[in-house]
Amino acid sequence: MEPDQRMSRRHARIQYDGRRFLTTDLGSHNGTAADGKPIPAQQPVEVQRVIRMGDSLFAVYHDITPLYQRGVIISSGKVLGPALQDVFALAKQSALFGDTLHITGESGAGKEMVAHAFHDSGPRASGPFVAVNCAAIPQGVAERLLFGARRGAYSGADSHAEGYLQAAAGGTLFLDEVGDLDLQVQAKLLRVIETKELLPLGANRPHRVEIHICSATNKDLKLLVAQGRFREDLYYRIARPCVHIPPLRKRIEEIPYLIDAAIKRTTTMAQVHPSLVETCLLRPWPGNIRELLVEVRSAVQNAAIQSCARIESRHLPEGAGTILRAISDTPSPLSEEYTPPSVRASDPAEHARIDQALRSHQGNVAKTARALGLHRTQLRRLIDRYGIDPTRYAPDSHTHKLDLDK
Question: Do 255 and 240 sit in the same domain of this protein?
Fold first, then answer.
């Protein structure tokens, strides 16, 4: 790595007191930024995610050990930080010892990528991999599409039709958003899993089918069971073993590599400006990897249209990677000025996400904000808006100092 010519020999100091990071610019020539904002010299400023010194970026980690020990792996076009490496290891292990795997995680976080790893690691890796988005199947045809149908089974059935289960025979069927399946279809799916026998619509006798079932959802299946919208017996059959994919905002070490891969797939002519990476590190990316890749490719195109040799943050589409989309003059969700519009105040999914995050971090607002990719001020406003009491959950201290002398 070449020395950063824009970084001063004594540039900044970073302090960690066991709870938070404080950054002090030591009178550097080109200044220091904390979470995208320039900071005054000789005044300690708390930083939650990213420090910029010259053209160099430093991500904040409360525990650097996993990243230090295992780093980021690039394998077959996949970018795997320590958290995803753990998920892949569990998926591969599950494929060797069982025939089902359930994956949870937000939309775009990489569930199908993990499903492929499950398929490729099992005894049926040479068989087909069939992915089905259950949420996109029109009501009334799910049974026919999944299980197939014989000629004459329904009006217009002029020939035998193969279902997804038949197409995946000898391989793996990936059922994304499995919680959206109709209860009647769930019952029939359970029977196939337990008996390994498939009965297409209109058939008189079932036939044997050997198949691995991988399912995924961004919903709470236990909650759906409690609401009577998902069969309890099917839940216990497909929901174990289960792996959870952390959202991209909790895997920010992967972001620079994903940006690089997206740009290289689009052009070999342009260079990445540090402002692009810094901005992407600071944003929560609710659409996760899928959203990041799409928006970075758009930034490449915008830079090309403007005849720019370097792709900068200003080339990202407006609102990219934030909770809001296509709303003008909206500050970053990490800035103190950002206030979500009232239209989101009654968003039950957001309410549940904040409540769950606060519970996971024992009511610590700062840690919860970091986990959600938000500024503490914004999170406090959301907490007030939803009437959540963080004190229902519970907090921690000591001091390390690090001088960055270069």
Answer: no
